[in-house]
Amino acid sequence: MKRFVFAAAAVAVLSSMTAANAADLPRRQAMPTKAPAYVAPIYNWSGLYLGINGGGGWGHTSVTGPLSTGGDFNTSGGLVGGTIGYNYQMNQVVFGLEGDVDWSNLKGSAPCAVGVTCEAKNNWLGTARGRIGYAFDRFLPYVTGGLAVGDVKTSATGFGSSSETKAGWTLGGGLEAAISGPWTAKVEYLYVDLQNASAPVGSSTDFRSNIVRGGINYRF
To answer: What are the start-end ranges of the H helices in the chain?
Structure first.
C-alpha cells in the first residue's frame, strides 16, 4: 500500500513539472504571410490639359488667275505654338476636343508670269479639332479632324502682296503616351487645306500642307 501511494505521488509531481516546463517554452510564431503583389492602376486620360507643340511641314500650293504659276509648287517650313484640350474616357475609348495656335513659317515660291515670281506664305495656323482614340493603358493612338484657320500671304514681284485669313479643314492622327506623372508626349500628322486665299491682281492661292509635329502636355 505504501508503495502504491509513493508511486502515485511521484507521477503527480512529474506531471506538474512537465506542465510547468511546457508553459515556460516560447510559443511558436506564426509564419509571416506574403504581401499581395502591387498592381498599378489603369491610366485614366480624362481631364483638361495644356501643352506646347512644334514641328515642320511641307506641301503643294498653286496660284491661279491673271498671275498663274501653271501648277503646284512646293512649300515647307517650321511651326511652334501652344495647345489646350480636354479628354473624356469611357472604358478604353477616349473622346477629346483640342485646339492650338502656332507661329508658322511655311512658304514657297514659283514663277507666275514673265519676269514675275509669286511667293505664298503661312504666317500662323490654328486648329479646333475633335479627337477619338483607344487607350492601351498609358498609350493612346487617335484620329483627329476639324477646323483649320490661318493667314495666307501671297506676294508678287512688282504687284505688291495680299494677305487673307482663311478657314479650311484638317484631318490626321497621332500617338500620345503618358511619360511621368501628369506629363504626356505626343507625335501627330495633320493634313491642312486652307482653301483659296486672295492674291494680287485678282488671283487666288490654294495653300495645302502636310504637318508633322511633336508635343508635351500637362494634365490637370
So the answer is: 2-24
In 10 A of CB 137, how many CB atoms? 14
The architecture (CATH level 2) of 47-219 comes to Beta Barrel (2.40)
Structural domain boundaries in the chain: 47-219
Give the CA angle between residues 115, 121, 124 to the nearest 5°. 165
The 10s digit of each residue's pLDDT in 84-114 is 999 999 999 999 999 999 999 999 999 998 9
Short-list 133, 113, 109, CA closest to 121: 109
Low-confidence ranges of the chain (pLDDT < 70): 1-40
**Chain centroid offset of residue 140 CA:** 8
User: Of all helices (H) and strands (E), which one includes residue 25?
Assistant: none
- 506676294: which residue's cell? 155
Does an H or E element contain 140, and which?
A: strand 139-156
- All 3 cell numbers of residue 75? 512649300
